[in-house]
Amino acid sequence: MTKPERPRLVVGISGASGVAYGLRALDACRELGGESHLIFSKAAALTLAQETTLSLAQAQGHADVIHKVGDVGAAVASGSSL
After folding, report:
1. Are 21 and 9 a contacting pair, CB within 8 Å?
2. Rounded CA separation 33/69 (Å)
3. pTM of this prediction?
């Protein structure tokens, strides 16, 4: 019998209060044993710097996999992505 895949959550953060909500969603995913993917926009990075004490690297540390903004070849960018 094959082991089921971990549930996967993809979080895209574009700025404003989305930073706080997105990071909390990533933390919840980790707490539940899921795999998390993060896409952080340039505007979100500005908001992060202005509204929190976290660095971009610290924020990205909340996710298992980081995808660069504009990476149209990322697996999560495909309509066939599970």
Report:
1. no
2. 25
3. 0.82
Q: What angle do CA 53, 55, 58 make, to 5 degrees?
A: 105
Helix, strand or coil, per DSSP, at residue 8: strand
- pLDDT tens-digit series, residues 30-48: 999 999 999 988 899 999 9
Distance of CA 51 to the CA centre of its chain: 18
DSSP secondary structure of 22-78:
HHHHHHHHHHTT-EEEEEE-HHHHHHHHHH-S--HHHHHTTSSEEE-TT-TTSGGGS
Bridge partner residues of 12 (DSSP):
39
In angstroms, the CA 49 to CA 80 distance is: 34
pLDDT tens by residue, 50-67: 988 999 999 999 999 999
